[in-house]
């Protein structure tokens, strides 16, 4: 079932292939999984590990999901090319390249300046108001003040700390970067004195951009997440089952779930009947264990 064999018979075929390290490389048969090629070898894990800390565990399927989406997009591009040329082609997406592409910012910076890119913790963020903090009720949140000098006055007003605006250590992005640990310590003290609900109200009033850091169980009850369509009711044998939705929507060709994943062999007999088999042929196959 390789591409060359199938292409000879079906020249319009678009053949999507996901590998660990590429089908034409000397490493093509090396064991990969996304936790190997994507998470470990592509540098993703170490890019998220502060100096001296233990490497965090990858959640299931992170690299697989991204690689599947990359392959689907590439297949669509190949199908469009076929509409113009009439020819199919092989589309290959290696896990390791998806990992490198995902942290391309860091990789390109490292190759550009010829130096290692060291991960950093929240106390040493390049922009101390583009990092995470904890409210007084132990709820974490992330400040999203990327345009640091634009948003710094808004944050100070929201916290009723206009005095920080005249503090030379924090007067602009360069000063805040140089004095990052001191600013983080200052803000930690302010945030620890107020619950998340009070901070959220102040942030919203003064146009401070932020996002809650949800636990996994909180994602399913987050109103903004639910409104985005992140969950879908899938028909099941005993009624609807709530599941995570695919992330893409289409304004015209709308999709809807039709059922949960089938059990092993659930449709075997149905498929065989569609292919022209009758029950006198199917029953012996079941008795011999050829089909489940």
Given the helix and strand composition, which structural class is it?
Answer: mainly alpha
Major pleated sheet: 3 strands, antiparallel
Give the topology string: H per helix, E per strand.
Answer: HEHHHEHHEEHHHHEHHEEHH
Please give the count of helices: 14
Rg (CA only): 26 Å
The outline comes out as elongated
pLDDT under 50 segments (min length 5)? none
Average pLDDT works out at: 95
What is CATH's topology name of the domain at 3-113? Answer: Rossmann fold
In total, how many beta strands? 7
The CATH homologous superfamily of the domain at 3-113 is named: Crotonobetainyl-coa:carnitine coa-transferase, domain 1
Spatial order of strands in the largest sheet:
3-4-5
CATH architecture of the domain at 3-113: 3-Layer(aba) Sandwich
In short:
With 292 residues, the protein is mainly alpha-helical.
Can you tell me about this structure?
The protein is mostly helical. Among the domains are: 3-113, Crotonobetainyl-coa:carnitine coa-transferase, domain 1 (Rossmann fold), CATH 3.40.50; 122-213, formyl-coa transferase, domain 3 (2-Layer Sandwich). The protein has 14 helices and seven strands. The protein has helices spanning 3-9, 33-41, 44-47, 62-85, 95-102, 104-113, 148-158, 173-178, 180-192, 196-205, 216-219, 223-227, 268-274, 279-287, and strands spanning 15-19, 90-94, 132-134, 140-143, 210-212, 231-234, 241-244. Strands 3-4-5 form a three-stranded antiparallel β-sheet. The chain has a two-stranded parallel sheet with strand order 1-2. A hairpin with a 5-residue loop joins β3 and β4. α2 (33-41) runs parallel beside α5. The longest helix has 24 residues, at 62-85. The radius of gyration is 26 Å and the shape is elongated. The mean pLDDT is 95.
């Amino acid at each position: 079932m390789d591409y060359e064999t199938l292409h000879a018979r079906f020249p319009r075929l678009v053949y999507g292939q996901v590998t660990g390290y590429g089908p034409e490389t000397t490493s093509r048969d090396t064991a990969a999984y996304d936790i190997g090629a994507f998470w470990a070898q592509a540098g993703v894990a170490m890019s998220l590990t502060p100096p001296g800390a233990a490497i965090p565990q990858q959640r299931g399927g992170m690299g697989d999901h991204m690689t599947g989406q990359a392959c689907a997009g590439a297949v669509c591009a190949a199908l469009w090319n076929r509409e113009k040329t009439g020819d199919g082609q092989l589309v290959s997406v290696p896990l390791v390249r998806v990992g490198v592409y995902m942290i391309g910012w860091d990789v390109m910076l490292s190759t550009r300046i010829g130096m290692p890119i060291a991960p950093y913790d929240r106390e040493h963020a390049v922009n101390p108001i583009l990092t995470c903090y904890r409210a007084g009720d132990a709820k974490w949140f992330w400040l999203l003040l990327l345009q640091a000098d634009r948003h710094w006055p808004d944050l100070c007003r929201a916290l009723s700390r206009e005095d920080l605006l005249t503090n030379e250590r924090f007067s602009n992005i360069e000063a805040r970067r140089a004095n990052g640990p001191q600013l983080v310590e200052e803000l930690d003290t302010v945030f620890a004195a107020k619950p998340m609900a009070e901070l959220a109200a102040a942030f919203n009033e003064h146009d401070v951009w932020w996002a809650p850091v949800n636990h996994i169980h909180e994602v399913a009850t987050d109103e903004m997440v639910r409104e985005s369509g992140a969950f879908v009711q899938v028909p099941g044998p005993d009624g609807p089952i709530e599941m995570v939705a695919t992330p893409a929507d289409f304004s015209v060709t709308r999709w809807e779930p039709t059922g949960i994943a089938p059990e092993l062999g659930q449709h075997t007999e149905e498929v065989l009947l569609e292919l022209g088999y009758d029950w006198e042929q199917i029953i012996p196959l079941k008795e011999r264990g050829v089909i489940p």
